Amino acid sequence: MPMHSYLRIDGVAGGSTDSGYEGWIACDSVSWSLHGAGSPEGLSEIRFVKPEDAASPVLARLCVTAASVARARFDFLRAAPEGSLVKCYEIEVEDVTVAYVATGPRREEAMMETVVLTFRHARLTSSPRDGQPDRAN
């Protein structure tokens, strides 16, 4: 079952035109790691791959200036049996820095970017098949 992933970062407009996610950043893939208080720098990270879009120059500028952003949120959706999209997972992060941006072509498609965000605080929310949210803070 295919997943759909979207990202909203404070102050960064993305290129998505999908219903309910207009102006968000559409992500092709997302992975994350969480580190406990014992990690030396206390930062965790989220890595995502996306097509080049309106957010690209802003993300690059945030990366080279090391400016932090208050919040970002990823929404993950899956197709329901009747074909609609249902949010199944959400990650909200705070004290966010764009740590890495790499751009290059992918086959015959548009330019793609790999971006790494580091953050200090996260809230993960999953929605099991019964539709009741399950929060982990």
From TrEMBL:
Name of the protein in its database record: Type VI secretion system tube protein Hcp
PANTHER family in alphabetical order: CYTOPLASMIC PROTEIN-RELATED (PTHR36152), UBIQUITIN-LIKE DOMAIN-CONTAINING PROTEIN (PTHR36152:SF1)
Protein's organism: Pseudoduganella albidiflava
UniProt xrefs under InterPro entries: Hcp1-lik_sf, HSI-I_assembly_Hcp1, T6SS_Hcp
Pfam families listed in its UniProt record: T6SS_HCP
Lineage: Bacteria, Pseudomonadati, Pseudomonadota, Betaproteobacteria, Burkholderiales
